[in-house]
Structure formats: C-alpha cells, structure tokens
Design brief:
alpha+beta, elongated
C-alpha cells in the first residue's frame, strides 16, 4: 500500500488487526426476520471435519468457501444467510431468514437449511435456540398474546435498546428441542435488530458454558470435604510428640498429589466459567433493560440462578487452592521437623564416630609404643649377635656392653623414624 507521507512501513498485522472490529458485521438484510442459532462442542478432529462440512455447503450453493485459517464466515445462500464462528471449545452457526409468520416459531430459519447437510453435522449440542423479530407494532405488547408462543410458561422479558424493542423468553427447551426468543419491534433499525439477536444468542451460549463447571463443583465437594478432614487428622497427629513423622510425611505427600490432580484437572474449567459469567454480565448491560410490569427482566432471572452456581464454582476453586497451600505449609513444617531429627541423629553419629576415632588413636599409640620396644629388642639382639661374632674372631669387644649401650640410640632412631612417617601421612592427608 502506498502512502503520501514519509512514515515507516506498516506492521505485518496492522490491517488484519485494524479490520478485526469489522470482521463479524451483520448480514441481516431487513426486518422482520427469523434466526436459528446452534452452539456445538467439538473435539479437534471434529473441528477439521467442521471446515470440510461448511465447504460442502458453500460448494452446493456456489459460494466461495472460507479460508483455511478463518475462524468466522458469513454468506448469503438462496433462501437464507449463515454466520459461522469457531471458538476455542465450541463453534456456533446462526441461520437467518427474512420475513415473519403469523406463528413466530412455526417456520424457523433452520427449516430453510438442507436437511441432509444438517444430518451430517458433528459435535454435541450445547445451545439450540430460535429467535424471531416481529413486525413493528405501535401498541405495547400484550403478555396474554405472547404467552401461548411459550406454551404458557412464565415469561421473562424487558424493554431493551432504549425502548426500541421488547424481548420475551421463558428460558425453557421446548418440544422441538430449541429454546425461544421473541423480539417485538417498536423502532428497531436493521443493524440494531442484528446486534440484539446476536447478544441474546451470546447470553444463552455463555450462560450454559458458565454452568458447565457447576456439576464438577458439586462432584468435587465430597472430595474437598474428605481432603480437609484428612489434613486435619494429619496436622493433629503432628502435634503429638510420639507420632511417626515418616508415615505422616508420606500421607501428606499423597494428599498433596490428590489435591494438585484435582486443581490441575479442573482449573481451566473453573477459570472459563468465571470468564463466561463476566461475558454474560456484560451482554446484559449492553441490552439496557427496562422492566415490564409483571415479569422478571432477563438480567434478574439469569443472575438469580446463575450467580449462585458461579459463586459455588468460585468457592470450590478457592477452597482447593487454599487447601493446597495449607498442605504445602504442613509439609514444610513436617519436613523441617524431620530434618531437625535427622540432623540430631547425624550429630550423635558424628560424636560417636569422633569418640571411636579417639579410642582408635589411643590404641594405635599404644601399639606404636609396644612396636618401638619390640623393634628395639630385636635391633639390640642383632647388635649383640654381630659383636659376639667379632669377639669370637679375637676382637676386644664385650657384646653385653655394646648391646646395652646401643639401646638408647636405637630408641631415638626408631622414634625419629615414626615421627617422620607421621609427618608424611599428615602431609598426604592435607593435600587430599
């Protein structure tokens, strides 16, 4: 891209990031209209098949397929429009049709989609819902006329987007397997209607995704209680002086491993639940609800039921984190105590070894003394034998006198020799 200003070149991702805000624009052509929304959980293998499956639909209607690295796609086919989005753990399909029927849910948008293509769709349904925007009406919506569209269930609804529309639902799955949203148009523009539908679909999807962690939290509660009691038993035993520290340390290690396994296995699910709940709250704020007398608003209904569940998940995650820290502290204390005991044992062992070394030194000195006497005796005997031989040959030598006189010299020589040996040994040990 050329520029008339002498500025540095563009970052490689500048235009992609800049245009991201326009990537999911509305494809609704006019009001009134109907939409069917599907949210499916999919494995990695199913995500690969998902893209191929979408390409088959595009090829069938002669529409350009999405790029291989695309995570969203919008297109208009013969009688309907489609909007596909791929998220981290789920994918969504929204099908739009223009016009409205007398019965707003008798002919949903999904009926315009080829049945054989729908039957080969992979994944597990998380959310399936229909939404209809009724034609503009000057009169305020009559609840008695709206209730039959929801099997006369208790209605939930409000006036939204600054009074431009009213939204009604019952948050129930009906006999067709879909939940329902009915939007009564007061003064909606096409773009407003598209955004409103999309927000309602996101609220429904994120609400369900946030609740995925709730069954896990309920399942983990007995494990949490059991681990807490086990930690109490171990820490109570640590206060007893006669406890088996090695056994307690093994039990603490096993408990820490179990807790960390629970934390690592469910941390992402609990973190995702918190993130999805925040998204639900933000989408509810975006609706700008105003109460309709006699029924709950969408925000009141969701918060009344969703907030306790999410708080349970948060509490479970927090308690596991706290329990992990307590186990770590107890392990550290017990290891410190074990280390002190081992240090005392080592100190006692070193003292014993030092005493044995001193005793060995005394015995060695005693043996050296005896050895000096013995060596002196044998050396004097040798001198006596030699002088005796000289006396026999006629020399004027007295063997007894020479033997007695040589003893002091022999003792001094042997003592100096032992001293030299000790010096050599000491120098060798110091070098090592």
């Amino acid at each position: 891209m050329t520029t008339i200003y002498p500025i540095p070149e563009n970052h490689a991702q500048r235009f992609v990031l800049h245009n991201e805000v326009h990537a999911r624009s509305s494809i609704i052509k006019g009001l009134p209209g109907r939409a069917s929304h599907l949210a499916l959980s999919r494995s990695n293998d199913e995500k690969i098949h998902e893209r191929q499956h979408l390409n088959q639909l595009c090829e069938r209607f002669g529409v350009a397929a999405p790029a291989q690295d695309a995570d969203h796609f919008s297109a208009t086919f013969d009688t309907f429009q489609i909007r596909w989005e791929q998220h981290g753990e789920f994918s969504t399909y929204t099908f739009y049709v223009q016009g409205a029927e007398e019965n707003p849910f008798a002919e949903p948008a999904l009926k315009k989609v080829p049945v054989d293509w729908l039957s080969t769709m992979t994944g597990k349904i998380l959310v399936a819902t229909h939404a209809t925007i009724l034609p503009a009406n000057e009169n305020a919506p009559d609840l008695s006329e709206i209730a039959p569209h929801f099997a006369n269930n208790s209605l939930v609804g409000s006036t939204v987007t600054g009074g431009a529309a009213s939204v009604f639902t019952d948050f129930r799955i009906h006999v067709d397997g879909f939940s329902r949203f009915l939007i009564v148009n007061q003064n909606l523009r096409v773009e407003q209607g598209a955004r409103l539908m999309h927000r309602l679909f996101e609220i429904e999807v994120y609400r369900v995704l946030a609740l995925l962690a709730f069954p896990i939290a309920k399942k983990l509660y007995p494990e949490l209680k059991k681990a807490d009691q086990q930690l109490y038993t171990i820490t109570n035993a640590m206060t007893q002086s006669a406890g088996n520290d090695a056994k307690l340390l093994d039990e603490l290690t096993m408990l820490a491993a179990e807790i960390e396994n629970h934390v690592s296995s469910n941390h992402l699910r609990f973190a995702a639940a918190n993130a999805y709940y925040n998204l639900v709250e933000q989408r509810l704020i975006d609706l700008r609800e105003v109460r309709i007398q006699g029924i709950q608003t969408i925000g009141e209904f969701i918060n009344r039921r969703l907030e306790p569940a999410v708080n349970t998940c948060r509490s479970t995650a927090s308690r596991f984190t706290s329990l992990s820290e307590r186990v770590g502290n107890a392990s550290q204390l017990l290891r410190t105590r074990v280390d002190i005991i081992i240090e005392r044992q080592n100190q006692g062992l070193l003292t014993s070894m030092d005493l044995r070394a001193k005793m060995q030194l005394r015995m060695q000195q005693m043996v050296e003394g005896i050895s000096i006497v013995a060596i002196t005796y044998y050396a004097a005997s040798l001198i006596y034998a030699m002088t005796g031989t000289l006396h026999a040959l006629g020399w004027d030598v007295n063997p007894e006198i020479v033997e007695g006189a040589s003893v002091p010299f022999i003792l001094v020589g042997i003592g100096l020799g032992f001293k030299r040996i000790h010096h050599i040994i000491k120098n060798t040990t110091d070098v090592s």
